[in-house]
From TrEMBL:
InterPro entries: Ferritin-like, Ferritin-like_SF, Mn_catalase, Mn_catalase_dom
Sites where the protein binds Ca(2+): 57, 61, 225
Cofactor needs: Mn(2+); Ca(2+)
The keyword Translocase belongs to this UniProt entry's keyword annotation: no
SUPFAM superfamilies in the record: Ferritin-like
Cofactor note: Binds 2 manganese ions per subunit.
Membrane-crossing residue ranges in chain numbering: none
Origin: domain of life: Bacteria
Identification of the protein by name: Manganese catalase family protein
Family to which this protein belongs: Belongs to the manganese catalase family.
Gene Ontology MF annotations: metal ion binding
Species classification: Bacteria, Bacillati, Actinomycetota, Actinomycetes, Propionibacteriales
Species per Swiss-Prot/TrEMBL record: Aeromicrobium phoceense
Keyword set, alphabetical order: Calcium, Manganese, Metal-binding
Length: 307
């Protein structure tokens, strides 16, 4: 259950309408790293968190705060769009006719689609989509993604901050900058807490006992004359396990080559026949392949032979 409080978390009072700036502010609403993304990312992570208590509560607290940040920017944009488009077009044309001709005064969708309000899109009108969010169920992996999301969000807020001289808008963005500064620390401290509580050693290392360990500590360079070996990532000891890092030339580690199988003849791929006929990708072929796979697994279970 969520409850709505009418008061905004922080004031959003532009000194004057500015539809041209509102078009830029759209990126902070529905862009890949906008407030809609972090809102949905944190809510999904929180709803699916399997550790009751401080972790789940923390994630949902910040997710709920981000709902309020979306509301703040939507309110700000409605106020920036007050009186648009005619007033803004006239002002822009008076200041710079060429600019007015190119931009048309404002994002036309603000007038045509929403009637002078924000949209769930980026600054180019591309709709926000769920593919922007990360919610894997692994808190270490998610927290690292959250640090990056907050860093990108803050960077874009800082760039937009330089695009206005409105003191009211700047005051709101100063608050947002501060929150993004804190939230980066929040997720980094969350990672420290995960380590302290024994949930991780600081690396995502699922199936660590299955990995080819010699490749887990090697930097491969594929650039002639590369100086990458001078960096900490290629020398000294590993962060976990205290093993020596290795800098090596990137060379083939196998004699396997990029040779794909003969194509399904029903797909009409260009093919010279040199590898023989392809396997038809029909229902009969799929059934045969499935039966062969089941027989292989049964044999492996009985004999322990994986060949």
């Amino acid at each position: 259950m969520y409850r709505h409080t009418k008061s905004l978390q922080f004031q959003v009072k532009p000194e004057r309408p500015d539809a041209l700036f509102a078009a830029k502010l759209q990126e902070l609403v529905g862009g890949q790293f906008g407030e809609m993304t972090v809102m949905m990312q944190y809510l999904w992570q929180g709803w699916n968190c399997r550790i009751p208590g401080k972790y789940k509560d923390m994630i949902l607290d910040i997710g709920t705060e981000e709902i309020g940040h979306v509301e703040m920017l939507v309110t700000m944009m409605a106020r920036l769009l007050e009186g648009a488009p005619s007033e803004t077009q006239a002002q822009a044309a008076a200041a710079n006719p060429a600019l007015a001709a190119v931009l048309g005064g404002q994002n036309v969708q603000h007038a045509i689609v929403t009637g002078g309000a924000a949209m769930p899109t980026n600054s180019q009108g591309v709709p926000w989509n769920g593919g922007y969010i990360v919610a894997s169920g692994n808190l270490l992996a998610d927290f690292r993604s959250n640090v990056a999301a907050e860093a990108q969000s803050r960077l874009q807020t800082a760039r937009v901050y330089n695009m206005t001289d409105d003191p009211g808008v700047k005051e709101t963005l100063q608050f947002n900058l501060a929150r993004d500064t804190y939230h980066q620390q929040q997720w980094l401290l969350g990672i420290e807490q995960l380590i302290e509580d024994g949930f991780t050693d600081g690396l995502e290392d699922s199936h660590k006992d299955e990995e080819k360990t010699e490749h887990a500590r090697t930097f491969y360079s594929f650039t002639e004359g590369s100086r990458a070996g001078e960096g900490r990532w290629a020398q000294g000891n590993t962060l976990i396990g205290n093993e020596e890092l290795v800098f090596a030339e990137g060379v083939p580690l196998t004699d396997d080559v990029n040779q794909v199988p003969p194509p399904d003849p029903l797909l009409f791929s260009t093919y010279d026949g040199s590898m023989g006929p392809g396997t038809p990708g029909n229902a009969g072929g799929a059934f045969k392949q499935g039966a062969e796979n089941l027989l292989h697994k049964a044999k492996e279970a009985l004999t322990g032979d994986d060949k």
